[in-house]
Amino acid sequence: MENTLRCDPYNLIITGVGGQGNVLASRVVGDMMIAQGYKVTIGETFGASQRGGSVMSHLRISARDGFSPQMPKAKAHMVVALEPMEAIRVLAVYGNSKVKVLCNTRPIQPVGVICGDQIYPEPKQIIQWIESISADARFFDTTKEALDLGNSIFGNIMAVGALSATGDLPMPLKVFERVILKKIPVGKVEINLRAYKIGKNLIRDK
User: Fold this and answer.
1) Structure pTM?
2) Is residue 28 part of a domain?
């Protein structure tokens, strides 16, 4: 197997909040790599509540060896954020001067903000923060695109499609199709293929 990873091991974090489909996205990426012969370890952390709490998946991908699922601090190569403030939380611990970021710009406000006890930063401020602490940051509203498909949950697959367009990992459409066929009912495969292609084009169009 030819190693086409940008780094080996390649350290990827997919982060969001409960209910965004973070875990499915990480499993799809992991299974795509495994299907091509790579070794993958996945570690997941969950916030205080299943829906609305922070969710973070560590993926460590290698052509050579298996690695601990918990990556060292400041060693992420890519952060895929389904929610913008979660990108900040992850980068504060695992970011570095070379890290890349793919970030959905649509916020999901926590209970503290909704109740008036906390303040959610302005979107422009979040973007500036992320750009200041990363080497390359791409922003898009996958929530809007997903709602156009009928459900915001498709934003997770769009994020996977966007990751595929960076070229950091080998993620061809044919492999995605094989993997997604095993993950979801057959009747939902076509719309997930559309979501994957939309996500890929969000990167290509920038």
Assistant:
1) 0.92
2) yes
